[in-house]
Every structure is written in structure tokens, then in C-alpha cells.
Design a protein that fits this description.
Shape of chain B: globular
Largest sheet of chain A: 9 strands, mixed
Number of strands of chain B: 33
Structural class of chain B: alpha+beta
Number of domains of chain A: 2
Distance between the termini of chain A: 29 Å
Strand order of the largest sheet of chain B: 2-3-1-4-5-6
Helix content of chain B: 10-25%
CATH topology of the largest domain in chain A: TIM Barrel
Number of helices of chain A: 17
CATH architecture of the largest domain in chain A: Alpha-Beta Barrel
Radius of gyration of chain B: 27 Å
Strand content of chain A: 15-25%
Helix content of chain A: 40-55%
Oligomer: heterodimer
Chain lengths: 386, 601
């Protein structure tokens, strides 16, 4: 087995594609069903698909499991237990395995927290998004701020580790209002926060509104100020960014996300999940059917729902390592880049970026984005990859 | 094949404005005379290049022999030379006309006479052609044949009362055209028994047959095995094949006086043939040579550089191949500090430039950067020498120049009344001098003297947009006139970009400079630092813009492990970067070199 992927660790992502309602900004693979979902049948299919991937990855030790969505907190605790058992039956779990789950902070879901904990979940990530009722409504969320605060409390009492998400740079939001909201969030937080700047994604209701001129998004300059403010406030509170949008007290980083960003191996099961697997000499990119019921049929008939399973070229692996790795404040290892891409980074471009203060070199082999560089990271990555 | 008397031969061209149906009519004639079977007919068979079919234009003159059984019971051989309509290829028109005795004048029955109609029909009249007038597209609801007939008589001054009324598309009335060709056009004159005298009308390169020479036999006959001599170049060749185009090449035994046909022989390169040259027998030459034509002179020059420097040799080879078939296109090596190795190329006009560029891209798969087109300037220097300047980057030191002269054209523009104001304003802005303005009904015809340098870039585009496509335009070079011209340099991030420097009239410099800086500001993407863009004459900055630095460009959320989606975006960005050129620290997209010159006003 190639050592390149082992360096990044090994994790399992499981996608639960259902939501109670679609949020107008979200372009993830989520679906609303008006009839109860047959959870036992989906759990059985997930089990089969896991078995298929287990055959591809014999002998690996799982460092993290992540139940994402959609809204995985719509799963019954029994369904969660079933899929976690399926994983532990097929692979060895690390002693310190991180088992994360995304959850919505509604009172109904909070009632299931104990069941999830009992099933083995040891970290929860709540989709709080805002602590302000008007903005929660605008974002199409089904909870209010008070319920979210209560859910945070319940989660804190139930799970060893806790994170929650906020979306900022919302239409009409002021810098001052965000600073206040962010400080309140830090006071509520345990040791991890995900802070995403609102972006307009194609195919969403927000996209249509934005194109119709009915959604006033902050201009690039104001967007930069929001980002700067976020970096300053979190760093002051001892929760600096360790990735573009993720903040933690040292040691509390999300291990699962580190697998992605360190470009490790990960299995992706469930509808519309992506994976990266080192199999023999190949680095495979997998993706499964997005439509839940179609995925279900594929798995039941063929043992898996994969619609893409292709080896990545050296160039593609190099590109992915850059674009994932440079999102981390720890940066990337030049030697690892060379071993993946089979070429080095153009020294002229690297030096120009260093000269402009966008990246810095740490020792001989490590390169990372500077604070200025993080503001324009996509352009920095494009330069280094060119 | 039996030899036909001269009285049963007709040689003719078709002249028309672009889109008036010239090639469709040619197709229809081929079809109706049974020259090609239905299966062989593709649309516009005479336009053999993809670009010609797509754009609906004819670039290379093509010839076809038609056999027609007329109503008088006799069989006629009709030789059609299809000519390009565009002004860039006017020289092809002139030599085709010289090989014929008559022309079909095709006019769109709803649009009427346009600028190219005029230019081409006057050439035909200058060549003593009989003209058969054809009104096309009479089946369209907008057709106004009576009004257009009147217009033809008013504007061109030829009798249109007996014009054929046709629809080339449906075939309606086309048999009348065939009859009119036989009845109204004169047969060729010549003596089949005299010594060989033939005109070299055109030549091109065929992959299988080598150099093919289109000839019009004046006297005598041409046979396989003949040893011929070109009177202009003095070179002698053996004739291997004699034939006619149907439009496929078909071998025949001989070509007689009055006929048009094609020969191949021991000629190695198209460049060895001179259009208008007189062909005769080596052993028994004719007494007098034909007057010949002036060779076509390139009037527009621009630099072509490979986007990928490694493609330079491929570009050289491709240009060599194109030149095989197009002697009017010239190229020589050029080095640019900004763009590396490339070629300075000469063209007959802007359409010619575009076509060559597109052929290089399509037929040879070469990605190119084209620099701003420039005209040929004449300069008198203090040491009393005269030089021609093809490239603004080569401009001599200003103190050594006593006078700069630039080429002027006489332009004819025809337009519906409504757009005249905008067009006059455009011509004035481009330093035009109005020569004439007259009306035919609601259509205005205006003549302007204009410096070619003001037209060469986007004049035609602007004209089309001002007139919503209704104005037509034609020009011919008139003379060289002294002008107060200066070289304007463009500096990006304080470094001059040689490929963007242009010669402009002093009175236009500030406006052009400002427009170029504004355009470049749009065209150059934001960088991580701010970029000043300046236009300067000598050391003096006359316009300036600043591209502000990129402030925020980072994907907030990377969903799950979906690296594929982000990678695809990155691949697009990388491909975009490949199409850029690095100037110092700045990356400039290749289209900027042309786009920067376009004026929006």
C-alpha cells in the first residue's frame, strides 16, 4: 500500500440524505420526503455498501466516522447503532476513534441525543447557523435561537465533544452585529466552531433571488472585512482557525475533517457520498448515486451505489492535495506533493507568492498560506497548481 | 469530347453582395445542368473550405464547367467562375473577371444594391462585360422587385427591365438565367489555329495532384505533353494533365481557344506561378504577352505568436502549408520581448487575417496570440532614406524621422437613412473626409476618405452595430498621406508591453489611450496586488487606470470529501492560466491583445 494516503489517516463518511425542509442556501444532496423513510431498509443498504468498501480496504484502522447529511439527526438511534455496528464489524476501530454526527438543534432532535450517545456517537456538530431569530428565519431554519441554545446545553451534557456551525456575511448583516453574535457563540461553545461565510450556490433559491437582485450580498471588500473580523475575534478567544472556516482550541480539531484536508483515505457511503481510497497502486475517487431511492435500488441489486470509481492521475492527485492541504494553517508538505504529482511546484510561482506575502515556507519542506494568503486562497492554489 | 465552336461557349462570373445568393445560384446552376448528381450535391459545393460554408462567404475563386442544352436545340459549354464577394479578395475578383466575357449581377430583391454590389459590378463593367441582371429571393414576402429594378437603373445605370426574376433556393426562374446566359452574353473570341496564348487565372495546391493552374485559353490549344513557357517568369514546364473542373477535376484531351480549364505539370510551388502571366509554347511562343495583373499586396500586418512557445516550429510549418495555397499571405519571423518567437504576417485585409488565424487554429490545432493589426507606414528619415514600417515596435527613433505617411482609403457606405447620422459621426471620429453624399430613395450612399489605420481595427464592427447590420461597406486603397502619427506604448505594472504598442494620430492618442487602459482593466483579472496600467507617448503618461488587488477569493465550505468538484474548478482555472501570458508579475489573457484595441464608444 502506498504510504501517501496513510499519512493522512483513514475515515468513513456516511451520508443521510433526508431533511425536514430544504434550506434556501443549501446545495448539498438533501431530499424532503412526505412519507416516513424506511430506515431499516436504508440501514441494511448502508451495511451492504460498507461491506463492499471494506473489501477494498482490508486491514485499515478507522480513526474517524462522520454521519453527515442531509440531516442525520432524523435517523432513529437504532439506525445509528446499526450502521456503527456494521462499521465496527468490518474494520478495526482506533482506540480513540472519533464518531461525529451532524444534528439540527431542535427540541425533537435533542430528545434523541442520549440514544445517539448510547449508540457510540462521541462528538456532535450542531447546525445552529445563527443566534438571531430574524436571520434564522431568513436562512429558512426550523429552530429559533432559544431552542438552539437549549440544544447546545443538552448536547454539551450528553457528548464528550461538541461543535456548532454559524453562517455569517448574511444579507444586511453588519460587522458590529456579527462581532457581538460571534462573541456570544464563543461563550456558548465548547472547543470547536465552524464559521462559514454565506455563499450563493447555483441551483438554490438564494441563487434565483440573488440573480433577481432581491438578495443584497456583501461586496468583496466587506466580505474580506467579515473574514478578518472572524479571524481576530476567534484568535483572541483562544479558538484560532486551523482551517479556512474551522476554529478550535489546540487539540480539539475535528479529526475527520483533518483526514480530508491532509488528503488521507476515506470511504464515502450513502447517496451522493464521495470517497478517496488507496487501492494497490491506484488512488481511487468514488462517488455514489445521489438520488436516495435510486441509490437504494442499486445497492440492493448490485451491492453498492457507486456511479464513479476512477483512478486519479498524478496531476489530479497533486491538485487535490494542494486544494485540500492549503486550507489548513499547518499547510502542506512539499515532499508529499512531489510524491503525488510526480513534479515539484514551479519555484518561480512559489517565490512570487512568498514575495507577495501570500505563502510562507516553514523549514525545508513545509509551505503554508499566510494570514493574507487565506483571504485569496483559491487564487493562491491556482498559482501553485499551474 | 467533340470540339465545340467558340459560338457555343460562354464564360461568366457572378457578382453580388455577400448573402445575396451568389453561391446558392451557382449550386442551382450546377444542379439544373446535371453536372453533379443529387447525391454529390452538398450545399454550396463551390465553397469547399469549412470556413467558407460556415460563414457563407467565398474565399477562393472556384470554377465549374456546365453543359447546357438550350432551347435553340444546341449544346453549350458554360464556364462559371465563382468569385469572392468580400473587399479583401477584390484582386481575386478582378482576375476572374478578366477571364470572362460576361457577368451575372445578383441582387437580393428585398435588400437591393449594396456597397459590394457596386464595387464588383463596376469592375465587371470596366472589363467590358455584358451584364445579365438577376433578382434573387423574389419568393420572400419582403421582395420588392419593381423598386429594386428602379434602384439598379438609378444607382448602377444599367437596364434592368429584362432582369431574371428567380429564387435560387427553390429553383424558380433559374432556367431563364441559363437561357439569358446563352442569348445575352457574347461568346469568347480567339483563334483556335493560332499559336498558344493562355492567361494564368489562378493556381492552388492539391494534395493529390500538386500545383493546379487555372487557365483561360485565348488562342490555340493546350494538350497533355506540351512544353509550355510562362512569359512573365520565363520558366518552362511539361504539361502532365489537362482538364476541366466539374467541379471535380476531369481530364480532357485538350483545351481550345475560348475555354477555361486546369493544367498540372512539373510546377513545384504555387509561388512559382504568377497570376495574370501569359502561357505559351516554349518552342513556338506567341508574339505579345497579356498585360498581366498587379500582384496582391498585403495591407494589414499583425504578429502571430504561439500560446505555447513549444509550438513555434509547428506554426512555421503550418504557415508554409497555408502559403502554398495563398500567395497573398506573407510571413516573416518576429521576436517580441513580451510574446517570444512568432511571425509578422501580412494580409489583404481584416477578413483575410481572421480567416488565416482561424484556419491555423482549426486545421493545424494551434492556439495563437494575435497582436494589434497595423497598416504599412512609409517614413522619410533624416538621412534621406525611405523605410516601410510593418510593426510599430520597429519604429525608428523619433528624431530621425522627417515625415510619416499612412495609407488612405476611399470608402463607400450604403445605409438606410435612419443610421446616417451615427455613421457620419463615426467617420468624422476616425478622421474621415467626406467626399460625396447622395440618396437613392430612402437609402443614402456616402463616400469618405479615411486613413486605413482608423478602419483596420473595428470600424466594420462599429458600422454594423450603429446600423443594426443594415449598412454595407466597401473600400479601395487610394494613396499615402503625411500624418502626425505617434507611437503609444502601454505599460502594465510599470513595464512596457511591446505587443500592445500602436501608432496613432496625435489627435486620437488620448482617447485611444484612455479606451485601451479601460479595456485592459476589464480584461486583466485581479491579481493579489494592485496593477497600474498606463498609456504613454515617449515618457509622457496620457492615460492611467488601476486594477485593484484581489481582496477575497476563498471557498468557504468544502463539502464532505467532494474534492472532485473543487478540482474541476481548479482545472478550469489552470486551463485559463495556460491561455495567459506572464509579463513581469502580471498574467495577461491572450485575447486582451486584440480586445484592448476595440473601442466601445
Amino acid at each position: 500500500m502506498a504510504t501517501g494516503a496513510i499519512e493522512g489517516g483513514f475515515g468513513i463518511y456516511l451520508h443521510w440524505p433526508f431533511c425536514a425542509a430544504k434550506c434556501p442556501y443549501c446545495d448539498f444532496n438533501s431530499h424532503v420526503r412526505h412519507q416516513p423513510v424506511d430506515q431499516a431498509r436504508f440501514a441494511a443498504a448502508l451495511d451492504r455498501e460498507l461491506a463492499n468498501f471494506a473489501e477494498l480496504t482490508p486491514g485499515r484502522t478507522v480513526q474517524s466516522i462522520f454521519l453527515g447529511g442531509g440531516t442525520p439527526s432524523l435517523m432513529d438511534p437504532a439506525t445509528v447503532e446499526r450502521v456503527l455496528t456494521a462499521i465496527s464489524d468490518k474494520w478495526t476501530l482506533d482506540d480513540n476513534v472519533e464518531i461525529s454526527m451532524e444534528a439540527n438543534p431542535t427540541s425533537v432532535e435533542a430528545e434523541r441525543f442520549r440514544g445517539y450517545r448510547a449508540a457510540g456517537v462521541n462528538r456532535v456538530s450542531l447546525g445552529v447557523q445563527s443566534l438571531n431569530d430574524a436571520d434564522l428565519k431568513m436562512l429558512g431554519r426550523l429552530h429559533d435561537a432559544a431552542t438552539a441554545r437549549a440544544a447546545i446545553e443538552t448536547a454539551r451534557e450528553t457528548f464528550p465533544r461538541l461543535s456548532f456551525d454559524l453562517i455569517y456575511a448574511r444579507p444586511e448583516q453588519t460587522l458590529d452585529a456579527w462581532a457581538e453574535e460571534l462573541r456570544a457563540a464563543i461563550a456558548l461553545a465548547a472547543d470547536h466552531l465552524s464559521l462559514y461565510q454565506l455563499t450563493i450556490e447555483e441551483g438554490t433559491p438564494f441563487h434565483a433571488l440573488f440573480n433577481a437582485g432581491k438578495l443584497k450580498m456583501p461586496e468583496q471588500e466587506l466580505g474580506a472585512e467579515f473574514f478578518a473580523l472572524t479571524q481576530d475575534v476567534t484568535a483572541e478567544a483562544g479558538m484560532p482557525a486551523y482551517e479556512v472556516s474551522n476554529h478550535a482550541r489546540p487539540g480539539a480539531e475535528c479529526r475527520h475533517n483533518l483526514v480530508y484536508w491532509r488528503y488521507g483515505d476515506y470511504v464515502g457511503v450513502g447517496p451522493g457520498a464521495h470517497g478517496r481510497l488507496t487501492v494497490g497502486a491506484n488512488r481511487l475517487a468514488t462517488a455514489t448515486e445521489r438520488h436516495p431511492e435510486t441509490w437504494l435500488q442499486h445497492v440492493e441489486q448490485g451491492g453498492h451505489g457507486m456511479v464513479e470509481n476512477m483512478g486519479l492521475s498524478e496531476e489530479e492527485q497533486g491538485d487535490e492535495y494542494l486544494l485540500m492541504g492549503l486550507r489548513l494553517t499547518e499547510g502542506i508538505d512539499l515532499k508529499r506533493y512531489e510524491s503525488l504529482a510526480h513534479r515539484g511546484i514551479d519555484p518561480r510561482r512559489l517565490n512570487a507568492l512568498i514575495e507577495h506575502g501570500m505563502v510562507e515556507q516553514l523549514g525545508e519542506n513545509r509551505v503554508r498560506a499566510t494570514r493574507d494568503g487565506f483571504f485569496v486562497l483559491d487564487a493562491v492554489v491556482a498559482d501553485l497548481a499551474a | 469530347m467533340t470540339t465545340k465552336p467558340l459560338s457555343n461557349i460562354r464564360n461568366f462570373s457572378i457578382v453580388a453582395h455577400i448573402d445575396h445568393g451568389k453561391s446558392t445560384l451557382a449550386d442551382r446552376l450546377i444542379h439544373m445542368t446535371g453536372t453533379l448528381t443529387d447525391r454529390e450535391m452538398t450545399e454550396q459545393v463551390l465553397d469547399s473550405m469549412d470556413i467558407e460554408r460556415e460563414r457563407g462567404i467565398t474565399i477562393k475563386a472556384q470554377t465549374v464547367r456546365l453543359i447546357y442544352n438550350a432551347k435553340d436545340g444546341q449544346q453549350y459549354t458554360l464556364n462559371l467562375i465563382d468569385t469572392p464577394g468580400h473587399v479583401d479578395f477584390a484582386y481575386e475578383v478582378s482576375r476572374s473577371l478578366a477571364a470572362c466575357e460576361g457577368s451575372l449581377l445578383v441582387v437580393d430583391a428585398s435588400q437591393g444594391v449594396e456597397a459590394q454590389t457596386l464595387a464588383n459590378v463596376y469592375q465587371a463593367i470596366d472589363n467590358d462585360h455584358e451584364i445579365v441582371t438577376v433578382l434573387n429571393k423574389i419568393d420572400l414576402p419582403a421582395a420588392e422587385p419593381d423598386r429594386i429594378k428602379e434602384q439598379i437603373e438609378d444607382v448602377i445605370g444599367i437596364d434592368a427591365s429584362e432582369a431574371c426574376m428567380i429564387s435560387a433556393k427553390t429553383g424558380l426562374g433559374v432556367d431563364d438565367v441559363l437561357e439569358a446566359i446563352v442569348k445575352k452574353l457574347p461568346p469568347p473570341e480567339g483563334d483556335p489555329d493560332d499559336t498558344l496564348k493562355a492567361m494564368l487565372v489562378d493556381s492552388w495546391y492539391d494534395t493529390y495532384l500538386g500545383v493546379m493552374v487555372l487557365v483561360r485559353v485565348i488562342n490555340g490549344s493546350l494538350k497533355k505533353g506540351h512544353k509550355i513557357k510562362m512569359m512573365g517568369t520565363g520558366a518552362a514546364y511539361d504539361v502532365d494533365r489537362v482538364g476541366v473542373m466539374t467541379p471535380k477535376f476531369l481530364q480532357v484531351d485538350e483545351l481550345h481557344a475560348g475555354e477555361i480549364g486546369v493544367i498540372t505539370g512539373s510546377i513545384k510551388e504555387v509561388a512559382d506561378t504568377r497570376v495574370g502571366d501569359t502561357i505559351t509554347l516554349e518552342k513556338k511562343p506567341c508574339k505579345e504577352a497579356l498585360p498581366g495583373f498587379k500582384p496582391a499586396q498585403p495591407v494589414v500586418f499583425c504578429g502571430l505568436f504561439p500560446v505555447d512557445a513549444n509550438d513555434f516550429e509547428d506554426l512555421r510549418a503550418a504557415m508554409g502549408k497555408l502559403r502554398l495555397n495563398d500567395a497573398s499571405f506573407s510571413y516573416e519571423m518576429e521576436t517580441s520581448a513580451a510574446l517570444g518567437f512568432g511571425f509578422r504576417c501580412g494580409f489583404l485585409g481584416l477578413l483575410h487575417l481572421e480567416i488565416i488565424q482561424e484556419r491555423l487554429y482549426r486545421e493545424f490545432d494551434l492556439d495563437l496570440i494575435a497582436t494589434a493589426p497595423s497598416v504599412v507606414y512609409q517614413m522619410s528619415l533624416t538621412d534621406e532614406s525611405e523605410v516601410e514600417l510593418h510593426n510599430p515596435a520597429d519604429m525608428p527613433d523619433i528624431v530621425k524621422i522627417t515625415e510619416i505617411r499612412e495609407p488612405w482609403i476611399r470608402a463607400t457606405i450604403m445605409t438606410p437613412d435612419d443610421y446616417l447620422g451615427g455613421i457620419l459621426k463615426l467617420c468624422q471620429e476616425r478622421r474621415g473626409i467626406q467626399v460625396d453624399l447622395s440618396y437613392v430613395g430612402s437609402r443614402a450612399m456616402v463616400s469618405y476618405d479615411l486613413p486605413l489605420n482608423e478602419v483596420v481595427f473595428d470600424f466594420y464592427d462599429r458600422l454594423k452595430s450603429i446600423s443594426k447590420g443594415y449598412a454595407s461597406f466597401d473600400y479601395q486603397l487610394s494613396d499615402y498621406r503625411a500624418g502626425d502619427l505617434v507611437r503609444m506604448s502601454i505599460l502594465v505594472n510599470d513595464e512596457p508591453v511591446d505587443a500592445l504598442s500602436v501608432l496613432v494620430h496625435r489627435s486620437q492618442a488620448e482617447r485611444r489611450g484612455r479606451a485601451m487602459c479601460e479595456k485592459l482593466k476589464e480584461l486583466i483579472p485581479r491579481h493579489m496586488f494592485k496593477i497600474p496600467i498606463q498609456a504613454a507617448i515617449g515618457g509622457r503618461v496620457i492615460a492611467r487606470e488601476t486594477i485593484s488587488a484581489l481582496r477575497k477569493d476563498v471557498t468557504a465550505k468544502c463539502y464532505g470529501g467532494d474534492a472532485t468538484r473543487k478540482r474541476k474548478l481548479l482545472e478550469k482555472q489552470k486551463a485559463g492560466k495556460k491561455k495567459m501570458r506572464q509579463f513581469g508579475k502580471v498574467e495577461i489573457p491572450q485575447e486582451a491583445f486584440i480586445q484592448a484595441l476595440k473601442m466601445d464608444d
